[in-house]
Design a protein that fits this description.
The protein is mainly α. 83% of the residues lie in helices and 0% in strands. The chain contains 3 helices and no strands. Helix 1 packs antiparallel against helix 2 and helix 2 packs antiparallel against helix 3. 12% of the residues are buried.
Length: 101
C-alpha cells in the first residue's frame, strides 16, 4: 500500500511516464497506414502524445519536483496544453468524418 505524499508523488511520475510511453506506442501501431486514415490517426496520436506530456510537465513542474511554476501557473499551463491536445484530437476525428460524408 502507498503511504505518504512522497510515495504518491513518485507513483504519479511513474504513471505520467507510462502515459507518454503508451502514446508513443500508438505511434508505432499506426505507423505505415497511409491515406486519409493514416493522416487522421497521426493527428489523433499526436493529440494523445500532447495529453501525456501535459500530465508529465504538470507533475514535474510542481513544487514537489522541479518547482518550475507556482501552483496556479502550473494548473494554467496544464490546462492550455490539454486544450491544445484536444484540439489536435478533434482535427484528427474531423478528417475521419470527411471520409463518411
Amino acid at each position: 500500500m502507498i503511504h505518504g505524499p512522497e510515495a504518491l508523488s513518485t507513483v504519479n511520475v511513474v504513471m505520467d511516464i507510462i502515459l507518454v510511453l503508451a502514446s508513443m506506442w500508438m505511434v508505432f501501431v499506426v505507423r505505415g497506414i497511409g491515406g486519409i486514415v493514416g493522416s487522421s490517426l497521426t493527428l489523433i496520436v499526436s493529440g494523445a502524445i500532447i495529453l501525456g506530456f501535459a500530465h508529465l510537465i504538470t507533475t514535474l513542474g510542481s513544487a514537489q519536483f522541479l518547482n518550475l511554476f507556482d501552483p496556479t501557473l502550473n494548473n494554467f499551463i496544464h490546462r492550455i496544453i490539454v486544450l491544445i491536445g484536444f484540439v489536435v484530437l478533434v482535427f484528427g476525428f474531423r478528417r475521419i468524418r470527411v471520409m463518411k460524408d
